[in-house]
Amino acid sequence: SSEESMRETALRLAIEEENRRKTDPNETHERSIIILGSKGVGKTTMVYRFLEKDERPKPTIAMDYSFGRKTVKSLVKNIVHVWEVGYLASSLVSVAMTGSTLTHSPHHTVLLIMLDLSRPEELWSSFEEALSVIRNGLKMSYDTNTIQELRDKRAADRKKELERGVDPFLMKMCIIGGRYDEFKEFDLSKKEFIGKILRAIAHNLDASLYYYSSKDKFLVRRLKDLLSHYGFGSSFMEDKCTDCEKPLMMPAGMDSFGRIDLQFPQTRPSAILDTIKQIYVSRIPQVSRSDESTLEDPSNDPNFNEPIIDRLRMQREEEISVLLNDMMEGRMSKIPVPDPI
């Protein structure tokens, strides 16, 4: 009947519009920001400031998801999805990447790597681990066609020819140097050296670089504007600052290896990060963080205090302890397993 065909046509058009909305590389009302990096550097505090949450931030054990809305002209709401990865695992990054594709094209996702400037002896290790997790997360999330589309879109968005040695990451990326309030007290030569290293890795990946401190009103305001730019498409002043006595600011594509003046030998773009690493770790050896590689038990964290659950858990642990003792002393051949309810 004509009524049925009209219904089918309307359904088909709705599905086409939905698919177009999810795959359009240019137009969107929804975007995602995936945040990961150094432990305890203030990622959650930064997100809460951006989304204007009044709650007290709690440590992110695995991953947190939050979102924000902003009404623009014609009463359309722009939506930002914020995925904060607390525990560096490719599977969690993949969850964020695939989750974001439910509402928009992967072209509208930005990766934020937040590093702790106050701990130079862990800075490269943190960066390397975060980048490795992101690379593996990409492979788990997207097929070869999508990865090629991401590569092509990055090339199409380029405003000028690439400098030799630049190897753009598949997705937009920004490196945030956190705890600048502590870092600024460092020796001048150390600040200059670390600044050059961070500018070099950002430039190699065609990423932006910004220093940040939750204790500096200007830096809080600027980072909030940057996240609004990434999350809502708001305008953002792309200022530059390379003075090592001030917080660094370097939008993607606006630096050059010549200006950075790190003086490393010419090599293929994909090998430059290794070269930069050797320069950095030869001056600032990295400490082992093996003690942090295991996920901490949240039951010991006062932020996750649940009296009833804790009491039941303690009771169950005591019961298990008694059963184990009985079994060890031969009073019981095996631990009884209750029938399923």
UniProtKB/TrEMBL annotation:
<dbReference type="GO" id="GO:0036064">
    <property type="term" value="C:ciliary basal body"/>
</dbReference>
<dbReference type="InterPro" id="IPR022780">
    <property type="entry name" value="Dynein_light_int_chain"/>
</dbReference>
<comment type="similarity">
    <text>Belongs to the dynein light intermediate chain family.</text>
</comment>
<dbReference type="GO" id="GO:0005813">
    <property type="term" value="C:centrosome"/>
</dbReference>
<dbReference type="GO" id="GO:0035735">
    <property type="term" value="P:intraciliary transport involved in cilium assembly"/>
</dbReference>
<keyword id="KW-0493">Microtubule</keyword>
<keyword id="KW-0217">Developmental protein</keyword>
<dbReference type="GO" id="GO:0045504">
    <property type="term" value="F:dynein heavy chain binding"/>
</dbReference>
<dbReference type="InterPro" id="IPR040045">
    <property type="entry name" value="DYNC2LI1"/>
</dbReference>
<dbReference type="InterPro" id="IPR027417">
    <property type="entry name" value="P-loop_NTPase"/>
</dbReference>
<dbReference type="GO" id="GO:0005868">
    <property type="term" value="C:cytoplasmic dynein complex"/>
</dbReference>
<dbReference type="GO" id="GO:0005874">
    <property type="term" value="C:microtubule"/>
</dbReference>
<keyword id="KW-0206">Cytoskeleton</keyword>
<keyword id="KW-0966">Cell projection</keyword>
<dbReference type="Pfam" id="PF05783">
    <property type="entry name" value="DLIC"/>
</dbReference>
<keyword id="KW-0243">Dynein</keyword>
<keyword id="KW-0505">Motor protein</keyword>
<keyword id="KW-0963">Cytoplasm</keyword>
<dbReference type="GO" id="GO:0005930">
    <property type="term" value="C:axoneme"/>
</dbReference>
<dbReference type="GO" id="GO:0035721">
    <property type="term" value="P:intraciliary retrograde transport"/>
</dbReference>
<protein>
    <recommendedName>
        <fullName>Cytoplasmic dynein 2 light intermediate chain 1</fullName>
    </recommendedName>
</protein>
<keyword id="KW-0969">Cilium</keyword>
<keyword id="KW-0970">Cilium biogenesis/degradation</keyword>
